[in-house]
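Indole-3-glycerol phosphate synthase
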Amino acid sequence: MNILDRIIIDKKKEVILKKSIIPVSQLETSVFFEKKTISLSQNLKNSNSGIIAEHKRRSPSKAEINYSFTVEEVVKGYESAGACGISVLTDGKYFGGSLDDLLLARASVNIPLLRKEFIVDEYQILEAKAHGSDLILLIAAVLTRKEIKSLSEFAKSLGLEVLLEVHNQEELEKSIMPTLDMIGVNNRNLKTFEVSLDFSKELANQIPNDFVKVSESGISSIEAINELKPYGYKGFLIGENFMKTDNAGKAATEFIKQLK
């Protein structure tokens, strides 16, 4: 069993437990249910840099990345740097995140927030909305076409945008549908953790122009972004590269400045 399979098994158990503790009716009373969401796809279309900066404490492949920043420090730094949006990891067991991180991020900044999570159930989308998220991530590797359709439709009904993550042509072909806003290509194989920009390059022409193209993971240099832009990519998700420094906001500022 690979790491992704283990994460999904644990996630399904976690969702069952959460549903038994916090009813849907409680999530729906959140003030954020009335809040108009901010569009990441529009921000990416209008940006020269296209940076989606990530708050990420650790990962299964790298163990600890950084526990020394507060969420507020990181996200305010990213907003000041000119990031188009912020990805907030909310998985606890494998990435050291939580929904509280999303809530704190929402209280601190006014740019689009992505709930970065292994979504397997509509309940998690309600959680995302209740904690101030503007968009969700769906991972094609762990969902059927039917599940992608129903989960993306549900997200859209709540006013959330959808970023669909793929890793190969098979995942892309089963996933293309009008309820998606952005299609992201993960340069890291979630089963082996091998990283290569070739994944983004090879799939670029297969992604219809109706969707904003995003390249995710393994992007650590200006050269990598300049290499990917001719392939039509408008968004670049970067986490580790900023989080592993002494000042994530400053690192993002210097990086984005070079892109402009």
